[in-house]
Design goal:
- The complex is a heterodimer.
- In chain A, about 65% of the residues lie in helices and about 0% in strands.
- By secondary structure, chain A is an all-alpha fold.
- Chain B is of the alpha+beta class.
- In chain B, a hairpin with a 5-residue loop joins β7 and β8.
- In chain B, α2 crosses α3 and α4 packs across α5.
- The termini of chain B are far apart.
- The chains are: A mainly alpha, B alpha+beta.
């Protein structure tokens, strides 16, 4: 069942006092007009404006409508990230909990869906932090370190981060870069990356990590052959 | 000798966002040339933008739809579930930190709810707007179709011609306000292009709006936001 977003329809005789946007939001006339507006007609931004002006059951109805229209999007992400329905439902519930807690502080600097995305992403990555860092049978980093300057040495230099980013950008294709960054930068498990990026090849993100490793090793060798380092 | 975990820690630090990276709030906006140059060379930005695009992409992958509907149904069920005696704080009291609790106990009930939900329809009815809010719109374009749940994707949008209008501007939008397509028409009808038709998948709610324009270019009437959705085919077979 979906909660009602269109509430009791009041007598039109109440609505003769003036335009809606000049009404006191708590006045009986404004309270009567809101149900008439049918919340489903309002954009996300308009719903957020109504949320700021309302209280009680009207405010709940606004939140219901706003969240309801983003349920599927959040559910889809959570399902891809978590990999099973129960965990996805728990993650999605926590996302909307956080969104509800902080809705009043959302100032409309971005689309509501983008704001919601930041919550989804952070909640997802927070779940990873409690687990183990990614491990691979392919020791990508060890091979890179053995062939060129090691990451620790690189870290000691002023521009090493940018050089590595440039190196990744020029060596790897778009999907390889994305998989590499998510796996090593965010500790995201390969199966979650496979689902989130909708990778439909047989071995999913794993294949891209292997491919990225080969390319990086070859590129590092070429650098060394030219007497250069990362 | 460096350890593998040490290497990973250093690399992880290198792959984090920097001050030059585009903040997520700006992902949907037009970027400057300097920002584009940065994005083109920044694996972090490219990754975050790719994920954001996946989040916004409404297209489910094969076999995903039923599971997504299950999660949505579960969210609705939890929202409407009877409250513990100590809970308080309005109808959104259901939003308590979950993290694994109640899942096992709710599984059987959720299964029953979900099966019933999917077999019934799986989506709430999209309400038509015959009693739309006339009171706050001084001049309205009366729409003809499509509105509400419809059996097949519409080939065109139609409305009643407005006296004095010389043309009409039409927007087709996602439910979050993202514009899918914009068009103009000199008549009271506009055909939808194939790019829009391809997005009218069953179960997806789409919004549209038409504005009547006078010879001076002023908007003289507005339909307000209309919504329609191609109905999902109802499941008539039982699970075997």
């Amino acid at each position: 069942m979906v909660p009602p977003c269109s509430l009791h329809v009041p007598r039109l005789a109440q609505l003769q006092e003036g335009p809606f946007d000049r009404q006191d939001p708590e006045s009986p006339v404004a309270a009567a007009i809101l149900p008439l507006m049918r919340l489903g007609d309002l954009s996300d931004q308009e719903l957020l404006a109504e949320y700021a002006k309302r209280s009680g059951s009207l405010r709940d109805a606004v939140v219901n409508e706003l969240f309801e229209r983003h349920y599927a999007r959040v559910a889809r992400w959570c399902l891809r990230f978590a990999g099973d329905r129960d965990a996805a439902a728990d993650l999605a519930q926590d996302v909307f909990l956080k969104a509800h807690r902080h809705l009043g502080s959302f100032k409309g600097a971005s689309r509501f869906s983008t704001w919601l995305y930041t919550i989804v992403r952070n909640e997802s990555l927070n779940r990873i932090k409690g687990g183990q860092p990614p491990t691979d049978s392919e020791d990508v980093l060890g091979q890179m370190a053995a062939l060129g300057a090691g990451p620790e040495e690189l870290a000691a230099r002023g521009r090493q981060g940018q050089r590595l980013r440039d190196f990744l950008s020029t060596t790897l294709d778009r999907v390889e870069r994305t998989v590499f960054t998510l796996h090593y930068g965010d500790d995201m498990p390969l199966d979650a990356i496979t689902r989130l990026l909708k990778l439909d090849n047989a071995s999913g993100a794993k294949a891209y990590i292997v491919s990225a490793r080969r390319k990086l090793v070859r590129a590092t060798r070429r650098l060394r052959a030219r007497g250069e380092e990362l | 000798m460096k350890s593998k975990s040490s290497d990973q820690t250093v690399l992880k630090r290198m792959l984090q966002a920097t001050a030059e990276c585009i903040p997520v709030e700006r992902f949907g906006e037009t970027r400057t040339a300097a920002e584009n140059e940065h994005v083109n060379g920044c694996a972090r930005c490219q990754t975050d933008i790719a994920l954001w695009q996946e989040f916004n992409d409404a297209a489910p992958v094969p076999d995903e739809g039923a599971a997504v509907q299950w999660v949505v149904a579960e969210l609705r069920r939890r929202r409407q579930a009877p409250l513990p005696a100590r809970a308080s704080g309005g109808m959104w009291r259901w939003l308590l930190p979950s993290t694994g609790r109640l899942v096992t106990a709710a599984a059987a009930l959720a299964g029953v709810v979900t099966i019933g939900y999917v077999m019934r329809d799986g989506e709430p009815a999209v309400r038509e707007l015959q009693n739309a809010p006339q009171v706050y719109r001084t001049a309205q374009v009366q729409v003809v179709a499509p509105v509400g749940d419809i059996a097949a994707p519409p080939r065109a949008l139609e409305w009643v011609a407005v006296s004095g209008a010389v043309g009409y501007d039409v927007d087709v939008l996602e439910v979050d306000g993202t514009i899918l397509w914009r068009g103009t028409s000199a008549t009271s009808r506009i055909d939808l292009p194939s790019s829009v038709l391809a997005q009218l998948v069953p179960g997806k709610t789409v919004l549209w709006e038409v504005r009547a324009r006078s010879a001076s270019g002023a908007t003289v009437a507005n339909s307000g936001t209309q919504r329609f959705r191609v109905e999902l085919k109802k499941l008539s077979t039982s699970f075997r």
